[in-house]
Specification:
mainly alpha
C-alpha cells in the first residue's frame, strides 16, 4: 500500500475527530459566554453587583458544554463506557 493510499484511508477518521473537537470547543465558548452574560445580568439586577452569580453562570456554562461534548463523542463511538 502506498503512502497516498494510507493517507486517504486514515484521513476520514482524523477529520471526523477534528470536526467533533471544533463543535465541542465552539459550543464551550458559546455556553460559557452565555453563562457569563446571565451571571453579570443577575449580579447587576438582583445581587447588588456581587461576583458569585458570575462565577456560578460560568460554572453552569462550562458544565453544560462538557455534558454536550461528552454526548457528542459518545455518539461518534470514540468513547464507550460499559458498566
Amino acid at each position: 500500500m502506498s503512502s497516498i493510499e494510507k493517507q486517504t484511508i486514515s484521513q476520514p477518521s482524523a477529520s471526523l475527530v477534528n470536526a467533533k473537537w471544533d463543535i465541542v470547543i465552539s459550543n464551550g465558548i458559546v455556553k460559557t459566554g452565555l453563562g457569563f452574560g446571565a451571571g453579570v445580568l443577575a449580579s447587576v439586577l438582583l445581587f447588588k453587583r456581587r461576583s458569585f452569580p458570575v462565577w456560578l453562570g460560568i460554572g453552569f456554562g462550562l458544565g453544560r458544554s462538557y455534558s454536550e461534548g461528552d454526548s457528542i463523542f459518545r455518539e461518534a463511538g470514540l468513547r464507550n463506557v460499559k458498566a
